[in-house]
């Protein structure tokens, strides 16, 4: 099946941004705020474009229906809960002085957890077919 | 549901388009992996010329 024009455009934007993001992560090895800002911004962009791609895959006329909406909503809920747990864990480790993170570092970690977890949970639920 | 679809000579894609869902949803419905909303069940039943009870088994075992 020939890919849609929109899919090609989305990939064309997504791939360079991913490269930029990896570059940002490499530079952020010392957790410099500037590189973390870039990582944060590029990661969010990649996530948004990827989300757009997932919505449009398959080239079907109907892009979303009640099942896909139900799965997407549940994935977002689980992702949100996971993020809350992560923030709580970070705060706890900070409190017991195991971990020291700057605001920007926490934001980057949370952005990554939210993006990755929602994509992964959504993929798992889609594979399953339905949510209980 | 598959038998009823075959009776009216519709493909999964055609049925999906007729009731406004993705083809994957019809695949999961036929595989018994997805519980449709009442509205969708009614639409499919109407399209296939059957009743909701004939098409879907909503018992705990099903």
What topology does this entry show?
The complex is a heterodimer of chains A (132) and B (62).
Chain A: H1 5-27, H2 33-56, H3 66-95, H4 103-128
Chain B: H1 2-7, H2 12-19, H3 23-30, H4 38-48, H5 52-55
List unreliable stretches of 5+ residues of chain B: none
Rg over alpha carbons of chain B: 11 Å
Average predicted confidence as pLDDT of chain B = 85
Q: Major beta sheet of chain B, specifics? A: none
Strand segment tally of chain B: 0
Biggest chain-to-chain interface with counts: A-B, 14 and 16 residues
Average predicted local confidence, pLDDT of chain A: 76
Share of residues in strands of chain B: under 5%
Broad structural category of chain B: mainly alpha
- According to DSSP, the number of beta strands of chain A is 0
State the helical fraction of chain A.
Answer: over 70%
Rg of chain A (CA only): 17 Å
Q: Helix segment count of chain B?
A: 5
The dominant shape of chain A is flat
Helix content of chain B: 55-70%
Task: Write the element-wise H/E pattern of chain B from the N-terminal end onward.
Answer: HHHHH
Order of helices and strands of chain A, N to C? HHHH
Question: Structural class from helices and strands of chain A?
Answer: mainly alpha
Oligomeric composition of the shown chains: heterodimer
The residue ranges of chain A in which pLDDT falls below 50 over 5 or more consecutive positions are none
Tally of helical segments of chain A? 4
Question: Can you give a write-up of this model?
Answer:
The complex is a heterodimer of chains A (132) and B (62). With 132 residues, chain A is mainly alpha-helical. Chain A is built from four helices and no strands. The longest helix of chain A is centred in the middle third of the chain and has 30 residues, at 66-95. Chain A is flat, with a radius of gyration of 17 Å. The model of chain A has no long low-confidence stretch (mean pLDDT 76). Chain B is mainly alpha-helical. Chain B is 60% helix and 0% strand. Chain B has helices at residues 2-7, 12-19, 23-30, 38-48, 52-55. In chain B, helix 2 crosses helix 3. The longest helix of chain B is centred in the last third of the chain and has 11 residues, at 38-48. Chain B is globular and about 30 Å long. The mean pLDDT of chain B is 85. The A-B interface holds A 58, 60-68, 126, 128-130 and B 16-17, 20-25, 28, 31, 33-37, 40.
């Amino acid at each position: 099946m020939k890919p849609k024009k929109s899919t090609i455009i989305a990939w064309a934007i997504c791939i360079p941004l991913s490269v930029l993001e990896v570059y940002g992560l490499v530079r952020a090895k010392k957790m410099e705020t500037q590189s973390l800002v870039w990582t944060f911004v590029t990661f969010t962009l990649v996530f948004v474009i990827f989300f757009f791609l997932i919505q449009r895959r398959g080239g079907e006329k109907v892009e979303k229906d009640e099942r896909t909406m139900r799965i997407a909503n549940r994935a977002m809920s689980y992702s949100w809960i996971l993020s809350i747990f992560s923030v709580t864990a970070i705060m706890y480790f900070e409190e017991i002085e195991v971990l020291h993170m700057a605001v920007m570092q926490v934001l980057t970690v949370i952005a990554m957890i939210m993006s990755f977890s929602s994509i992964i949970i959504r993929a798992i639920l889609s594979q399953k077919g339905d949510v209980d | 549901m598959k038998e009823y679809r075959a009776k009216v000579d519709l493909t999964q894609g055609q049925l999906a388009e007729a009731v406004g869902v993705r083809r994957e949803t019809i695949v999961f419905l036929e595989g018994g992996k997805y519980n449709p909303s009442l509205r969708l069940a009614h639409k499919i039943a109407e399209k296939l010329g059957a009743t909701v009870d004939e098409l879907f088994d909503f018992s705990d075992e099903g």
